[in-house]
Amino acid sequence: MLTSVKWLNALVAGPDLTPQEIDRALTHAGFPVEGEVQLPDGDTQLDVEITSNRGDCMSHLGLAREVAAALHREIEPPQIPFDIMQGPNASSPRADTRTSVDNQTPDACSQFTARILTGVTVRTSPDWLIQRLEAVGQRPINNIVDASNYVLFELGNPTHTFDLNTLTENRLVIRYARDGEPLTMLDGKQAKLRADELVVADAQRAVSLAGVMGGLDSSVTSSTTDILLEAAAWSPPVIRRAARRLNIVTDAGKRFERTVDARTVDRAAARVAQIILETGGGELLAGAIAAGPELRAHKSITLRTRRCHALLGVRIEPVEMTDALTRLGFQIDQSDAGDDTLITAAPPANRAHDIKREIDLIEEVARVVGYDRLPIHERMEMVVAHPQEDERARRAVSDFLVGAGFYETVTFSFTTKDQADLFLPAGLRAVKIDEERRKETPFLRPSVIPSLLECRKVNQDAGARIEGGVRLFEIGAGYAERDSSAHETVEQRALAMILDAPDKQLGLRQMRGVIEALVRQVAGMENAPTIEPVEPSAPAHDKSAGAAVSLDNTLIGRFGLISKKAQSRYDLDTPVVFAEMDLDALLALYPPASRVDQAPAFPAIERDLSVIIAEDVPWRRLEELAASAHMERLEEAEFVGVYRGKQVGPGRKSVTLRLRFRDPARTLTHEEVDPEVEKLTDSLKRDLKAEFRAV
């Protein structure tokens, strides 16, 4: 930020400071000066580096606070010689008789104020105002616009002036733009707005892109006499999104993107009105119109002095801590708690967005007393903390998959429109971003699978060959928007996997085995997931082979074949099986419940059954019948294989399952097992009209 030394000195009590003194004070406070220029009028221009979290210092008053705190001085903010809410003459006509404000977006506009000035003369600004603006690189325009720009650089609050008589019905509406709504900006450029961009409008049309730039049609001209003065606080993400999409960089937008506190707008508006009255005459109507949710008091934060000592490594007396915070504008209360001292600090309005936790207060103390007082140790003592459970779970997932032959990938979250549409479930639409570097892939992926397929294509083109086929996995996120909402974004963290499947049936069984083993690895051996056929949820999923993965009746993922259309889109030579698991649901199963069983003392008897059933009967149904047959000594029923061919006829298949029987106290005989097997065969014949092949 370009800063005037004369301007700073006007806001700091005491003798004038030299540029070098200001440089040292700001650098001490964490704002290094990157450049210094001597101006013709004897002023000095400093280029000060402002960190992104300190939007409050993008003003002379903000930097003056830091200089004053570093040098144990007081600040002298500009004085307004009238009540900032009522104006200089409470008997004047009231502002609400000339205009009204309808704030339809209190979630994105926490405060919007309007004041009316009448009988104003638009003219060239006085020399003092011109010199101040030129000292910070601004081009003077006229006394009205210059007053608004002056306060922006003085207090850090952007404001805007409308020609009241150009506003339809002399009123303002804060709303989201209509999709495609036109607006001619102050610089003369035409913009077509989107439905997620905020505007200030009159009764008919948008007259300003909120927080970014005003509109040309309502701007102040040489013939303007009546002015509507606006000051507001906007949602930083909303302002940032519009400014970046339209590639508009303004001093106002930079400050709103870094947060302007709603409690500061009234004083800033009154300061602009004061300068307009001084330079252009006229009358400020009594009162101000405010539109926004009720302003809440700032939350106080407690600082433990012992905690401060422990983190900084040096003892700082409580009185020095309170002095440092007081100099920054905090309201302080102090109390004793045994052998500790508690300092409760309420941040000033300009720091409320930045100071949230105890550690923030500790950082402020360190910054003001000086980083040079903090000791530098040759060695750092560390206490190894136990890894968080979700981090341990992620490691367990990655370790298991690597052991199962998968390679982990790290890919970008961007894709093309047609690739995104292939993986979009019904009711969702792709999220488009405005990013110059992503012109070819401007959409966020709705699933991690397209990124894996793109990676697989790169490996294929490079001639990668791995025995058993390529297997890839990635932990990432997919993004989409709901069709029913203009702003609701759906984000889901997922574990995505793909594997080559020249033999589609074998590939599906392999993926199922990986998923079942993975769930047991994360949740414990007793937690077997339920696999059931489902309809495809996206065009990229093959209709003939898709399954849902559930545990305790909770859906945790799905897997299946990539459709021929998707395979062709990625130009893959080999069919691919995919799986996508809900990462949060999977990690929530961790840690696994462990159980140790004694090794069997007696041998088991195994029987294989080849059951001829209808093609549409899933394996899950066979498992359910085996469980409900009440075979007392059954230890396990497992899948062996499936056969389709002339011997079983069209529309039918032969599924071989293996039954394992065991008695923990003695050796079983075949005569004891035969009746148990007969229970299952009877059930299969009755419920599935099954036939049996000789094994």
List keywords for this structure.
695 residues, alpha+beta, Phenylalanyl-tRNA Synthetase, Chain B, domain 1, Phenylalanyl-tRNA Synthetase, Chain B, domain 3, 8-stranded mixed sheet, 5-stranded mixed sheet
Description:
- The chain is α+β, with helices and mostly antiparallel strands and 695 residues long.
- The protein folds into five domains: 69 residues, 2-Layer Sandwich (Phenylalanyl-tRNA Synthetase, Chain B, domain 1); 197 residues, 3-Layer(bba) Sandwich (Phenylalanyl-tRNA Synthetase, Chain B, domain 3); 60 residues, Phenylalanyl-tRNA Synthetase, Chain B, domain 1, CATH 3.30.56.10; 198 residues, BirA Bifunctional Protein, domain 2 (2-Layer Sandwich), CATH 3.30.930.10; 89 residues, Ferrodoxin-fold anticodon-binding domain (Alpha-Beta Plaits, 2-Layer Sandwich), CATH 3.30.70.380.
- Helix content is 30%, strand content 26%.
- It is built from 19 helices and 33 strands.
- Strands 19, 21, 24, 25, 26, 27, 28 and 29 form an eight-stranded mixed sheet that branches. A five-stranded mixed sheet has the order 4-7-10-11-12. Strands 5, 6, 13, 14 and 15 form a five-stranded antiparallel sheet that branches.
- Strand 2 and strand 3 form a beta hairpin.
- Helix 2 crosses helix 3, helix 4 packs across helix 5 and helix 12 packs antiparallel against helix 15.
- The longest helix is centred in the last third of the chain and has 20 residues.
- The termini are far apart.
